[in-house]
Write a structure and sequence with these properties.
Number of helices: 16
Strand content: 15-25%
CATH superfamily of the largest domain: Aldehyde Dehydrogenase, Chain A, domain 1
CATH architecture of the largest domain: 3-Layer(aba) Sandwich
CATH class of the largest domain: Alpha Beta
Helix content: 40-55%
Number of domains: 2
Number of strands: 20
Length: 461
Amino acid sequence: MPQTLTSINPATGDVIGEIPVTAPDEIKRVVARARAARPKWQAIGLEKRQQFLSKLMDALSQHRTRLTEITCREMGRPIARCEGIHDYSIELLKWNLDHAAECLKSETTYEDSEIVNEVVYEPRGVVACIMAWNFPIGNFAFSVVQALIAGNVVIIKYSEEVPFFSKALEEVCRAADLPEGVLSFVYGDGEVGELLTDEEVDLISFTGSSQTGRKLYIKAASKGIPAVLEMGGSSPGLIFPDVNIDQILKTIFDLRFANSGQFCDNLKRLIVHADLFEKCVAGLAEIAAKTRLGDPMDRATALGPLVAERQVVRIEAQVKDALDKGASVICGGKRPSGLKGAWYEPTILTNITRDMKVWTEEVFGPVLPVVTFKTYEEAMELANDTAYGLTGYVFTADKSIMCKATTDLKVGCVGINGLDFFRPQNPFGGYKNSGLGRENGKWGFHDVCQTKVIARPRGKD
């Protein structure tokens, strides 16, 4: 196990600094402190927990500049987008605080003259939460907040790509004066995640690749505990012939290339009716040519770098595989000149075949394969031709197609004509290799709780 984590600014290749890796014996102590804190945190009740976490929300708001600038430097997202994600995360936290009582209230399922049956929701206990680097504050809001509100205690391990964000967040959380052991942080790579989940925990919460998620699912099963897994995606975007292509090109571009293509629910495979194919591809290439890459701290920058050199290498291998098998590059397909760091140009590929890695694998970077279809059935078969099932995007003016597509797409979330499904009230999660369980809304609360049925006598007047 390495002794330190080295953080590198992906926009420049410069070293930001080093953070010590949490030692195995310290991981055991962290888990022991969490187990000791769990009963008291549950016992203080929802209202008191809400007070603590309201203070945490205030601290996150007060440290907005610090956290967004660290995110920008450490993983390369342009600063304005960092600020937008931070603000959304605060909104999500506030919704959870405001609606926790409603989401966690007991439910009467049966009653007669003698008996009442109730379902109640209780915290599971110690949550091991392993989170990705691509949305540091967003992943905290998605994966940690509901667990804490519900009465769980949480141990966080962020990806080794964002250790300085994790350290800053830990310091900000400390300002909320949460009781000792309620919220803890450990630092390291996948080996530290393995050690943490080997310990006596009651739930594994994971955001990251499907490969790692499957390993954690097997481990959770062997321990007899649940797992909430938010994993990869290869989301299809379907463009039917009745749309005005000029009106949706910018939406399509943003759905694929925002955050330099580094989020799980990006539109990753574009499936376009043959009549619109040429115009669609040319229009997207024109937008790409006008898109500014550069210093993420510059507010004029639209796209930043990938998070690390290893991500660029992986993207290069996927594109090379496509080109070797006959794909054509419409734009991009290489590292940009004049930029030092982990950069890759927005890339559009055509002449795609289904044996190419850009079709069969998750592409976590700014590359968009585009294929055509002629019939609805062909479009849907292409859309579902993936091991993933996180999100799907449909563009049509035909309400009958809208209705049918929402049923036929095997995904957890469907956006019609660019409409946004990211709301605090809505569950987020996927089918197939895109995950298990849900985050957000009442469904997210329920997935971090035990469900208990109580049969009690009806009270007498």
